[in-house]
Amino acid sequence: MTAIWCIGLTLLLASAGAGAQEPTADPTSFAASAEVRAQVVAMARAMKPGQGFAWQPLVRDGKNIAALEYWKKPGRPAIHPDQAEYAIVIEGRGTLISGGTMPDAVTSKPDLVEGSRIVGGKTRTLAPGDVMLIPAGVPHYFGITGDRLVLLGIKLPAGR
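Given the sequence above, the corresponding C-alpha cells read:
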C-alpha cells in the first residue's frame, strides 16, 4: 500500500510540475528618474534656435509610446479625433485650455485637427506633477509660461 501511495504521489507531483509555467521575460518598458531627467536635458540641448517643440519617445510597448514633449513655444489648438491624450507635467509651467469649440478646425492629418483658437474652453494653470486626461475629440491647447513646458504624454485609442 505504501509503495502505491508513493507512486501516486510521485505521478501527482510530476503532473503538477509539467503544467507549471516557466517564468517569462518582463515585458515592462521602464525609465528611471535619472534617465528621464537626462533625456529632458538632451532634448533641451538638441533644440535649434527658434525651434518651439520637440518630441522624443521614452518608453514603448509595441504601438503604445509614452513620449517626452518639450515645448518652448505654444503650438496650435488641436483635436485628436480618435485618441485620448494622457499627460503629466515633468518640468516648467504653462496653461491648458480644453473643451469648448474650435470654430476654424482644419484636418492636418488623419489623427490631427488644428485651428487658431478655442472658444468657451476651460483654462487651467500647469505645474510639475499635474496630470491630465483629454478625451478623444476634445479641443485642447498648451500655452507656455516661462521658458519651457515639458510633458510626458501618451495617446490612447478612444474608448480604451
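The radius of gyration is 24 Å. Try to locate this feature in the C-alpha cell string yourself.
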